[in-house]
Amino acid sequence: AIGTNSHMFASSFDGNGYKISNLKISGTQDAQGLFAYLSNGTIKNVSLENVDVSGGNTVGALVSVADGGSINNCNASGSVTGTGYQVGGLIGVDSSSANLQNCYANADVKGNERVGGLIGIAASTSTIKKCFATGNVTGSADKVGGLVGVAYNVSDIENCYATGNVSGTGNVGGLVGSGRNIADSYATGKVTGSGENVGGLAGQAYE
Questions:
Q1: With left for phi above 0 and alpha for psi between -120 and 50, is residue 156 left, alpha or beta?
Q2: Engineered SS bond to 141: which of 11, 21, 98, 113, CB 3.0-4.6 Å?
Q3: Cα separation of 197 and 99, whole Å?
Q4: Are 118 and 87 in contact (CB under 8 A)?
Q5: pTM
Q6: For residue 27, what are the contacts with CB-CB under 8 A and spacing of at least 6?
Q7: Exposed, middle or buried: residue 62 (CB in 10 Å: 0-12, 13-18, 19+)?
Q8: Does residue 123 contact residue 148 with C-beta atoms inside 8 Å?
Q9: pLDDT tens digits, 101-129
């Protein structure tokens, strides 16, 4: 993976519309993805085709941890699996104010808690616009969403959708497991939860 916790990727990567095919990352380590840590950098125009990415906590096909910066016009297809929490089809966790636009994931995503078809966790003042996810999302615990597992604080989700089936225990939603500030967005997949707070759009929507 590109970048470490002590030396994060803080530059710009432009895929120029080319595809990276058959990316395989396996193991039980945390922070698995093409980019392990992004810090206020830019990733754009990247397509990941037929990925098979697995790890422990914080797993995403493109980025495991995004600490600020921007990710534009990127996508991933295939499968993403984490044995723990913060697992997303494209990004594991957006930890601080990243800007995500025109991105999508067509990946089957499996994890424990805080699992999303596109992003496991969107934190702080993250912005997610014109994005979608079409894969099935499975969590063995709480906070599971077709697009985002958890959208904390004042994260904005606009003009987004999810079409995959979603299952978990509590706080399970077709678009967002738990979140706020959702506008002009929808979800069409089947949603299944064995606990409390299960909804077609959002499992839990708070002020």
A1: beta
A2: 113
A3: 28
A4: no
A5: 0.95
A6: 54, 55
A7: buried
A8: no
A9: 999 999 999 999 999 999 999 987 788 99
